[in-house]
Amino acid sequence: MAAQPEPASGNSRTSEAGAGWTCAAPGSFEALVPPRTRRLFWYRPSTLWRSRNDVVARLFGDPSNEIRRAWVAALAERGTPAAFTLQRTAEEFSFVLMGDTGEGDRSQYAVVPALEQIGAGTDFLVIASDVIYPTGDSADYPEKFFRPYCGYPGPIYAVPGNHDWYDGLRGFVRVFCDLRDEPGGGHARPAFGGPLAGAARLLWRAAAPTDEGVLDAAREAYRGASVQRSVQPGPYWAIDTPHLRIVGIDTGIDGTLDRDQGAWLRGVSAGPKPKLLVTGKPLVVDDRHRPGPIEGGGTVDAIVRDPACNYVAAIGGDIHNYQRYPVKAGDRTIQYIVAGGGGAFMHATHVVRRTRTVAEDDFRCYPLRGDSLSRYSKLYGQWTRMPGLFELSPREATAAVRHRLGIRPGRGYDDAPPSLRARFVAVALGVPRGGRRRWRFLRLPVRKVPQWFRSELADWDTPPFFKSVLRLDVTAGELRIRCFGVTGCGDHERRPPVEDEVRIPLVPGTSVR
């Protein structure tokens, strides 16, 4: 088994210092950020126009299934086995997992020093969703993938997110599958149906040209060691090991699997060996069930919950925070985890209602709801230039969350009631009342608003960042999953705090109870 990282003695559940609100030393990540790096602003018209395929797919139909089939056919023609499975023979191994990484600015580089500590001695790294923002272009891989992770010594595998699909998956397949021969020469536009098909084809953004020389040079310069090189079978894949099968699926833009991938998933999921699902779209998130439809019928979650398939956990990106739901499925418990804190702007956790999917005491999230509300209140204070009205300390925000949701505080604060101002801010920034959403007319944009507006408000370049990285350690009898918090503080870079941990027995035909 690989050497284990030594975690910090405290975390966000024990103190404000553990959450990164008070940094004893600045983070070293600033020195890693390339010169003249531009912060990713989603509200720029050029960025919005480049990202338009998301809107086109949601208005006229998602063509991801058709495009994926073409890519898979090209991979098969090259000689990729239909099983899309890699074999690893080690009885014990470790790997790192994080989602939604590729903004290319300080919020991504803040994760790198902690990643090198958390990932020390691990065998490989998995990125779950959105390797590259904003549109997955191959031209962005040198500075948003190869360079940031040059220090990780093992291979990196990935499942694509919706942003990786905005160039038709061209950059992703080129980098991770090493496929240079593209279907249709890389210039064909997908077929749309209906009376507005012509408009959809006209609006659809074609992939930008790939500069093979630049990509090859970047790989050689930053991740050129033989132990770092890897070629995964396709946009979906499996890694088979003696005691655990890791299954990665491609959820396209809208979260639907094509019929062929669905058949492959059913096949690779069969049998009693314990399995872990990695997906671009989480199946349970924000206390809501998103089962993941499969073209032709059925859902991803139906497969995960089938006792004959013996899934012990399902981990997804897309939402930029950490959440864990230990859900009962018959006489088993399946761990549903959101792991999208790998570098992009933070999605709020304070909008998560008092949980119904699982008991509130069994639910875990990072950042804590009070820290999330405090961070957003400070952002709104800056944006509106009314800090006296909006800004809440972590203590004030935690009290307001406790009052609204009726839950115990995340750390050892007293039970003093929140001020009237703190209650107003909690309502305005979307904290539900006892699990119900009331006073909607008072709520300001936090979650369900246009992406460019939400992202701008939820992006910052100073600690605490509230990013997260998972480390998974596998033995013959156990899968251990730990969520390490990434604050951006120098005192946490060498010893990242453990925010959550779960141990799952690995026995064929059973899972944690």
Task: Break the fold down into its secondary structure elements and pairings.
Layout lengths: L15 H4 L25 H6 L2 H8 L3 H15 L6 E3 L5 E6 L7 H4 L2 H7 L5 E5 L12 H6 L9 E4 L10 H8 L19 H7 L8 H11 L14 E4 L4 E5 L9 H11 L5 E5 L4 E2 L2 E2 L10 H6 L5 E6 L5 E8 L2 E8 L24 E3 L2 H16 L2 H4 L3 H12 L14 H9 L22 H7 L9 E8 L3 E9 L3 H4 L4 E8 L8
Parallel strand pairs: 1-5, 2-3, 3-4, 6-7, 7-10, 10-12
Antiparallel strand pairs: 2-14, 5-6, 8-9, 11-12, 11-13, 14-15, 15-16
Helix pairs in contact: 13-15, 15-16
Number of helices: 18
At the fourth CATH level, what is the homologous superfamily of the largest domain? Metallo-dependent phosphatases
Over the alpha carbons, how many angstroms does the gyration radius reach?
Answer: 22 Å
Main sheet: which strands, in order across?
1-5-6-7-10-12-11-13
Helical amount:
25-40%
In the predicted model, the low-confidence regions spanning at least 5 consecutive residues are 448-455
The fraction of residues in strands falls at 15-25%
> What oligomeric arrangement do these chains adopt?
single chain
Main β sheet profile = 8 strands, mixed
What CATH first level of the largest domain would be assigned? Alpha Beta
- The SS-based structural class is alpha/beta
Domain Calcineurin-like phosphoesterase: 94-172
InterPro entries: Calcineurin-like_PHP, Metallo-depent_PP-like
Pfam family, one: Metallophos
GO molecular function: hydrolase activity
